[in-house]
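During the first year of the project, the team set up a workflow for recording each protein of interest as an amino acid sequence followed immediately by a discrete structure-token representation. This format lets reviewers and collaborators read both layers of information side by side without switching files. As required by the reporting guidelines, we include two representative entries from the current panel. The first entry is reproduced here exactly as it appears in our internal archive.
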Amino acid sequence: MEPTLFGKMKQELVSPLFWRAGAAEFVGTCLFIFIHHGATSIFPDRDLSELRNAFAAGFAIATFVLCTSHISGGHFNPAVSLSFLGFGFITPLRAVVYMIAQLGGATLGAFLIWVATPYEYNPTVAATVLGPGITQGQGLLIEIVLTFQLVFMIFAVIDENRTDVVGSKPLAIGLSVIIGILCGINYTGASMNPARSFSSALVSGTWRDHWIYWVGPFIGGPLGAMTYRWILDPSGTMERFRNDATCSCAFAGRSKNRKSGREQNANQTEEKEKDAVDNL
């Protein structure tokens, strides 16, 4: 019999593998932010290239998702973790630990770049701010749509029932980050990730309109996931819709009819976790 939600979280609390997953989120997010923020520094006689910014972020995401997907799922983004929580793919405990690890890792990455970079070359440590003439409402809309497309891509590419995805799934996710930045960098800085914006704001003290970079991704991410799972997924069923909508899949402790790729990656050590608990 599958353990209840609270039973599963109790197992997670005492499992070394669970905390290893949290550490993977910390390290992966730290490295991602370090590379991304470093790519935004403007050195003498060097122009800031939007392509450099976008490709550094996208390839960094692809690289570190590939490194950590079998350990934690490679979220690196509270909006992604919230979306997975909403569909019962991860427990509330795992979501909280992941988000704390993501915020901590992002802050460390931003701090390391701040230490390594002369102030005048990156004074705001890649802080996300609204572009000239962009209102708060417009900025919020941009962040919602950009995060929507990112999480929509994630849920589409990890669909286990698809047989047509023959390339690299982490690279596909990285490309979604690239197109998001190329589209939205002049509007909002194209955050799509509360941890990314929080790290810059905390290190540089730039908090202007910061709420947009939490509210936008936290709306857009779950909407992207819902759109794929409830509307566009060819293998979706009414039963799954009812379970998702009522969160009964998470709180009843029942098995899902199918699991996503990231869900399997993030939870593939579940049996090992149980064994580790039994051996304590």
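The second entry, processed by the same pipeline in the following quarter, appears below.
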Amino acid sequence: MGSFEITTVKRIAQLNDESRNFVLVAVVIAKSDPRFFSGPARGRGPFEQDTSAAGKQIARGVITLTLRDSERDTINCTVWGTADTILHHDTTFEVGDVVDVNRPQVSSSLFGRSEQYSPTVSAPYCLTVNDQTQGAQITRHEGSQKQALSALWKVPMVKASETIPLADIVASGSRCNGETFNVLVVVQAVRQKKAIRIARTNQVKSFREVILMDCSHSGVLMKFWSESYIRWSDRWTPLRTVLLIADARVEFSDFYKTACLAVDRKTIITQDPNLPQLNQLLNHVTSIPTQEIDVVCSLSSASTINTVMTVQQIHDRTEGSLVQENDQFTALCYAVITRLDLDGPSRIVSERCMHCRTIVREPGPTCPKYDCPGHDTRTPSREPFFDITVDLTDHTGTLSGCRMVGRVAETVLKCDAATFVRYSEAQKTSLKWRLLLDRCAVRLIVKRRSAVRFQTLFSIVDCTVADPVEVEAKLKVY
């Protein structure tokens, strides 16, 4: 390349088949996982023999960056290089960074196979940067355009009207397995990063599960296998970070019996997009229960439940042969209370903050959360509430770990939590034997174990001593 060749700055909209010797300045809006392979050293054919050290196979790799330089214009850039070069690009450039693409090759993307596995973009061209081409490289941009281009990271790739509710994806079950959809969601929880050994390659690979929610559904699991996205998710704040995910792939989980989401090669994630629906979504998720204890309390307002089931039938609906795609059902169970440890070592009364409703385990009168109004107050900001674990037994088996919480427990025990903690041991024992080993009519809401909930939740919403005549008429054999 001669010294007389001048490098100009071009925009995506200006590119054509004749574009040469230019620099493109753009923001990274998506990044693929790097892929590595072995190839012959430069200048030697794949079938030429060479026993020297210089002729040995060298590790090379490829990575794709999706770039944007205006609200309308986007393009894919494929980078080829040695393994060290590709690793450098993977760890150096993250989504949201502004980069200079120096002297890339421009080619039509209409017939390119790689475009089938890359994010959908507006440009009819694609860029290629090869480390064997003199002057071709990607560097971090530090010029005057950085601030303006960084703002484009928040511009959504699709309109809010082009997204679908999570509830529709879950309701489709296995019928949409492998398909891609656009979703607008809030991060409900970010789970710890885990490592798994891939049997086919014997390599250890990291992955992370993130729980997403929207106005239609309280939680759908999404898996991230990309180290780049895992690092990015470290900065996501539950119940505050909004994601617009374009082309999220649906994967039906046979283990959880529900639809989950995953990052596809075509997926683009926009964090906190510039959309008017963002605040509406955030206001909704802050008004619904997300902690397990609050979910149990919210279920206590259930209406009439009259579907009679035995303990075995409930087990079959949760983990046995009668499991359905819907993860929640109700049941009226005529059973004996065989565990009601009111006067024992079990935790009967818990405390939560009156302001943020967070469960408090530490001693003290105030809320331990620094951003809660109840943290620095001089007056107590905690309130006690019943959180009782109950076992139910009938002629078909035992239902362990049922939860009787809040107002339901107060109605059953005929006292509130504040009064209960002042009872003597003798009073607690007397209260226990009013229900223990009696046949009761117990109304339950069951939320089956799922991808976002590790254990089945049995919530007691009503419990009364049963009329023997009613039991005789309605009790089932199975």
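For the second entry, the following points were noted during internal review. The radius of gyration is 30 Å. Residues 41-55 have pLDDT under 50 and may be disordered. Both points are flagged for discussion at the upcoming steering committee meeting.
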